[in-house]
Amino acid sequence: MGTWGTGPFGGGDAAADLVVRLGALPANRRLFAVRTALADAVEERWYLDAPEGETAVAAAALLAAARPGGAAGTERGGAAGTGAEAAGAGAVGVAGSVVCGGVAVSVPRCVIPQPPPELTGLAVRALDRVLAPDSELAELWDESDSGPQWRASVAGLRAALGPAAQRV
Fold it and tell me: Of 43, 157, 166, 168, which is most buried with the most CB atoms under 10 A?
């Protein structure tokens, strides 16, 4: 599996692509794009392909970071940096670079507003779908030596979503 880390932005190019897409959108359309990425994973009833799973994990990480007191849970090495203090309360800034295949790729700054509670619940359901047996991303990670670390990263992200994780 061609990855560069087990965190939410280290699983493949789809996570970096999401950040780039969000940076190109007007700020008032970004939460809709995040919601769409999460819903695409949740609504897949057959087999969830790896790129959609990667995108859902990255979207959930951005939401976790945008919650009050949130943290993106990015892996060491700077796959994506957070700058909530620079972006203002209730928002996370992702700027600088995303590491893709060991190469830093510059991405535009994108700010995700504080998400509504129902979006956090959708993120939890998307993470559960990514971890399901009929998920290509889970299968690929389970075949690798880093599978347990990846699963722990996703579980940590789910926990970071807070009380919504307990209600779902």
Answer: 157
